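Here is one chain, start to finish.
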Amino acid sequence: MFSQLLLMQLAIAAGVVVLATGLFLAPLSDQLDDQAMRRALAIAQTTAAVPQIAEDLRHTKPSVDGPVQQEAERIRKASGAEYVVVMDLSGIRWSHTEPGQVGGHVSTDPRQALAGEDVMEIDSGTLGRSARGKVPLRDSDGRIVGAVSVGIEYDSVRARLIHAIPGLFAYAGGALAVGALAAWLISRRIQRQTRDLAFSDISALLAEREAMLHGIREGVVALDRAGRVRLLNDEAQRLLGIGEEAVGRSPDRALGEGRTADVLAGRVTGTDLISVRGQRVLVVNRMPTDDGGAVATLRDRTELEQLGRELDSTHGLIDALRAQDHEHANRMHTLLGLLELEMYDDAVDFVGEVVGDHRATAEQVTEKIEDPLLAALLVGKATVAAERGVALWVSDGTRLPDRLIDPRGLVTVLGNLVDNALDAVAGKPHARVEVELRTEGRTAILRVRDTGPGIPADQRELIFTEGWSTKKPPAHGKRGIGLSLVRRLAERQGGHATVGEAAGGGAEFTVVLPEALTGADLEPVLAAPATTDAEEASR
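Its structure:
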């Protein structure tokens, strides 16, 4: 590649030098011709200005020894002209460099000069090609009595041109040498930068890079030093939901404001940063490059997050079963003791109380919450809360009809808020979590209160940020998704999620979902197939 590039640059430099030399020689030749013609004209004018020549032309005959011939030859020799010809009105020569031509008719047309015009031309005559100047010859009264024609040998003009060429070539050679040196230096620099790869190798590498970037199942976003997107592979376009029009724009313009744009722009730093973009949970890593830009990689974590949420749900189910098993074992031991003590009436009463308590808990929830999914969620959470020593209450003001448009979305919201509340109050005395679900027209309002330490005022917006958490990350991945999901699901339905201070201390989360219920005269909209929290994160 180095030799090819050097040869191309040398060829270009040589071509430029040759072209410049030719462009210089062309006007130089015209300039020398013009100078020769003007010189010939000046000699002719000087000759015609001698009064004696006009007088001798009128009073003598053309002769080799005549005064006109002698004066013309004197002027020719003094000026260095090729010839000085004096002619009368009939075009007869009275003087000539070759004596035998005196008395003969001139070989070129003298009419313009005899008409009173000055003439400059390059023409051929009896002495060959020459630069000529012709002027009228006037007597003392101003009448035209003839003409004077002076020629400058054209070979002398060509000789001056040829004499100028070596110097011109010297300059051209110097310019070519400088160009060759510059071409060599540039080629060496390019050789180092391209690691001496041939053009075909570079083309093949580019094709391989394009195939690799657009074929891998990981999103790649390259940014230049100004922070603009300069490359997007197919997977990045799919994960981010943007197209090629994003190239040349900043992440904020291409994606809109949000955590994903902040991570790509470098305003949020770290490794394996979690971001929710549209329908997907992404893991983003950003690495600066030597040219001041950066390369970010995107991995689709939706399925992994789904598995993690399913694992969390399984753990919750196991905890609930463990709690029920523990409680059932205690009750069976109590019943066994009553039977061994032959206290049969007390045993019957005890069994009735246990069955009645369990029925009362389920019936109280289903009376207030008619949606079966939400009711089942709260019954299960109540069992887990009891095992952890937390009282889970359903507020007396709770009333939720079975007309939810997206019951599974509300299950995700309620489940995340209850889990966070249980984590906040676990291990504290008189731990209590209260849930309130009510409607105003077609708007659903959800509140979850706890008796935990509460949320500091300066963190009440921060806790809804993706990836932010005060808890230790679980085994399957990162925390900081739950509350972000809650807000995203609320905003997707045109609502909002906020947190404040509960009466008596602790935190109170409020989620408002406008248009969450179908109209009383409309059939409920069928919900989508069951999804996990991670799938909800992708919406």
